[in-house]
Structures are given as structure tokens and as C-alpha cells.
Amino acid sequence: MGYTVSEKILARASGKEEARAGEIVKASVDVAMMPDLTTILAVNAMKAMGVEKIWDTDKVVIILDHVAPASTLLAAEIHRDIRKFAKEQELKHLYDVNSGVCHQVLPEKGHVKPGRLVIGADSHTCTHGAFGAFATGVGSTDMGAILATGKTWLRVPETIKVKVDGRLPDWVAPKDVILHTAGQIGADGATYDALEFAGETIKDMSVSGRMTLCNMAIEMGGKAGIVEPDDKTFDFLNERTDGVYDPVHADDNAVYKSTLNVDAESLEPQIACPHKVDNVKPISEVAGLKINQAFVGSCTNGRLEDLEVAASILQGRSVHEDVRLLVVPASAEVYLQALDSGVIQDLVEAGAMFSNPSCGACFGGHIGLLAPGEVGLTSSNRNFRGRQGSPEAWVYLASPAVTAASAVAGEITHPRDL
Amino acid sequence: MMAGMKVSGKAWKFGDDVNTDLIVPGKYLELVDPHEMAKHAMEGVDPDFPGKVSEGDVVVGGSNFGCGSSREHAAIALKYVGVGAVVAESFARIFYRNAINLGLPALECPGISEAVSEGDSLEIDLTGGKVVNATTGKELDFVPLPGFMVEVLGEGGLVTYIRNHLDEW
Ligand code: SF4
């Protein structure tokens, strides 16, 4: 019986010959990442454990992203305390409020590598499985224990294989693949499991698209989303890391809990309707619904190719007079690329608002809240009640292309029909 | 109350997919004082909850309780508002870990939502894997927690556990 990617990585990380699904292992963490709003709780937990110094100044990464720059006094104090902590600890990697969303910045800055164990104090840490790492989110007390000891306990997950084959039709994006998958598997259908994405469509997909897939593993309850590393992975990583990798591949006879086959060619754009991520419908069933706000950004879809597709739709057109369109790049690197390529010019000319890299309008923080009764369409990952402002608002999830086309039309619209 | 790995208290019932945004909305994520978080426990579902719940009461959830973000604020708020245990059909994994790590028992008990009405008195034997509804006399079994988690709970949570076992960890 062979092993899945997760079993192999967790065996290596816990110094064992083998690890099987269901086992609880004590694993050494390769990268521990914290965003601004969970750091202080983790640091307090570490100190309460009787430890004053983090276990490794090179393996801990802090990224100030959720409220960036600070829009409240409390956030300003949190940022101040984190900066002070980082100095005291001689932390090598603090990315300040000008950097971007943690899940974009972490791989961009070369902290993620295939075969590694990445733990983040943020639920969307599963994003980093796009590079063949085992990456999962934990809360602050777990992170406190990692800061103190460099280790954590993990149950080795069972794995669901999601096999995607066929060419994606025009205007159908990786986001549509993952929304469709969430609709099929359900919001708790992968609880405690890893999702391995495989098949021809995944091989052809950009690194950015693979990040979109893995990012949303948690929306099915998943512990990790994983794509095996290939030349595209290494092309992305080579200019950012020391180039020394320990890539891991699943065995042909690995044991999977189940397999979901997705036929990419038959997909149309997908929409997740309020208030659950698995309430997914093909766009043909939702088209025509009026929207008040559209958001392109977040760790799910705030990368250059997302902004580019939005700009390609908005170029020479205007945002509908009844719609606010917010565009927030996921990182400073994406921001600069978008400046360079003229994407920002096209977006702003069409009437979009452009903001500095941050979590932006994704979680009802400091940008673009929805009023009671309003409808928001977003390229981010959660449509929970109250996620983007009022609990009386309605949030729909879609790809950047559908979000942009709908911002022009004023209602949910297939880009083909503009 | 948790005495000898037993919890007893009144049941407060919630439905399926109660996510962490509902337990503690995003606008309170800047809070670091657990007592302040407790004032907003369950705000997205029942804003009056902190005023009604008593020390040791039991939150009864449906499936996928605590799904969504990794914010420990959700489990902290429940613990500090006085909740003695959370029993649900199933849990999202990060909430589950967070609760155990804080010393707040989280028990997966299929059938619990049917077996319990709001206000019923519950007695839970954590190590024995049994929930008794003292109001109706009904009993339900659950798979007892793995040994490691019982140890963590028994020592009051992961903070004290790590403090006690720093050398071996
Ligand atoms: S962009 Fe949204 S989902 Fe991603 S880390 Fe920020 S708040 Fe979380």
C-alpha cells in the first residue's frame, strides 16, 4: 500500500519511517506564519507556557495584512506591539502593512517549498499546498505552542482526490472549478481530510490558479489542499528560494478516501449563493440578480492574472452607476506588476476603486462594508452572513471575470453576454 | 462545571454550520482581552446569549459547528462566557482544536440535536463517552476523546500542558 502526499510529508516532519491516515503525530514545523490579528494571542499563549523566546528566529514569519494600514486605534496598538515583539525577538521576517495578504506574501518571499510543513495562524493557510507543501491553519494557542517548541500535534488526514480533466471553456476559471467542487463535496464534506488536486486541467493550470483551488480547501472543512509540484512550481520558486527542494509525490497505489471526478469542459461559471459556500449554482440560474458592490481581491483571487482578466473586461467599458467596484491587489508585488502592465489604469478609468494590498473588503474589516439589504459579489472565499458588513446583506462568490462583468452590467452576468 | 472530567449544565441549542463569524463577528477580532470577547459570544446568532448563559452550561450544536476562520476568539468567547462544554453532531477542525487547547471540552455526538431541547439539563461524562439528558432520561454515547486530548483537557488546556511537559515536547 502506497502513501499520499500528506502521509509522506507528515512522516518526514515527525521523523518517522511512515505515517498513516488516522495516526496522531508530533511534527516539527518548517514555517510558522502569523497574520496581524492572531499574533498577539499566540505570543501571549507562548509566554503563558513559560517560554520567552521563539524557537527559531528564521522560521517564524509575521505579516501585517488584515487591517493594513490600521484603521482603528486597537489595530494600531496591535501593529505597534507586534513590531516591538519582532525587534525584541530578533525575528528575521516581519512583513509590515505595506506588503499584502499573508498567503500571497509567504510564497512570494520564498518561505514555502515543496515537501515542507507550513503552519499558519489563519484558516486559509491551506493555500500553500499549491506548492506541494503540507500547509494548514491553527488557532492561537496551537501557534503559541509552536512558537515555544517548534512542534505541533497533527492527525494524519485521509485524502480525497479531486481529479479534474479537460480544457476549461472560455471565461471559466480555476475559481469555478473549486466552487463546483465545494458544491459537490459540501461545506463539511472534507472535514479533517486533505484534498489532492490532480488531472490534466491542474497540470495546465497556472500556479496562481492552483493557489485559488488550495485556498478554498478549508471551505469544505479540509485540513489541506495539495497540488504536486512540477516545472511550473519550480519556475515560480526558483527566483525566490535557495532552490533546494524535497518534492513529494503520491504513490500510484496510495489509498484515497474517495475520488471526485470533475469534467472541466462541461463547467460554466459558478456562483456560491448566500449564506453558504456550498450553495453553488451555475451562473445560468442566478444571472440577472442586481448587485450593489463588487470586489476583486483577497488571497483567493487578488493576483495579477485575476486583475488582468478583470481589466480585460472593463477596458473601454464603465462600472454600472449603481455599483461600487473595489479592486485590491493581494500583495505589493502584484500591485507593481499591475502598475507596470497598465491594468490599474484600465480599472480606474472604468470607474473601479483601487486600494493598497491588504485583506481589504474580504472579511468585513476596514474597506467596503455592505449595508443591510445590499448585495455584494466577491472574488473572495466566504459568503457567510455578516462576513462583509451587515448580517442583513447578501454575499455571492464568483470568479474575477464574472465579478468584473457583473460590475459593468449591474447584475450577475456571464462575461460572454456583455 | 468540570469535575473529574464530568460536565453538567443547561443546554443552549444552535443549528448546523454555526460559523466562527457568527460566534464572534470579524469586527471584534482586534480584541485581545478574553472577557471582552465573551461579551460578544454568539452575537451573530443570539446577541442576548452572554446575558442568559450560566457557568457550566452546555452549547449544543448541529453539524459543522465552528466552521470558517481560525479565530480562537470564537472558542475563547464561549469559554469565558462560562460555557462548560460544546457538544455537536460534528465540528470544523480548527474550532475543535482550539476548544480542546483552551480546556473547553468539544464532543462529537451524533444524534445530540434530536435528543436535546433548549433548557434541558445535561450531564456529560467525558472519559466514559456518555451524555445523559437528565430532563428526559435519554442517554447518548459518543466516541471518547483520544488519550492525548484527554490529557490536555485534564491539565486545563494546552498552555498548562506544554508548561508541564516542556522538556519532553
Ligand atoms: S484575504 Fe480574506 S480570506 Fe484571505 S487572509 Fe485575508 S481575510 Fe482571510
Verbal overview:
The complex is a heterodimer of chains A (418) and B (169). Chain A is α/β, with parallel strands linked by helices and 418 residues long. Chain A folds into two domains: 5-248, Aconitase, domain 3 (2-Layer Sandwich), CATH 3.30.499.10; 270-417, 2-Layer Sandwich (Aconitase, domain 3), CATH 3.30.499. Helix content of chain A is 31%, strand content 18%. In chain A, helix 2 crosses helix 5 and helix 6 (174-185) runs parallel beside helix 8 (207-215). The termini of chain A are far apart. The model of chain A has no long low-confidence stretch (mean pLDDT 97). Chain B is an alpha/beta fold. The two termini of chain B are 29 Å apart. Chain B is 30% helix and 20% strand. At the A-B interface, helix 2, helix 3 and helix 5 of A face helix 4, helix 5 and helix 8 of B. The site of iron/sulfur cluster (SF4) has 13 residues of chain A, from helix 4 and helix 10. Iron/sulfur cluster binds next to helix 4 and helix 10 of chain A.
Percent of sequence in beta strands of chain B: 15-25%
Tell me the CATH architecture of the largest domain in chain A: 2-Layer Sandwich
How many distinct helices of chain B? Answer: 8
Large-scale geometry of chain A: globular
Termini distance of chain A?
52 Å
**Average predicted local confidence, pLDDT of chain A:** 97
**Helicity level of chain A, as a percent range?**
25-40%
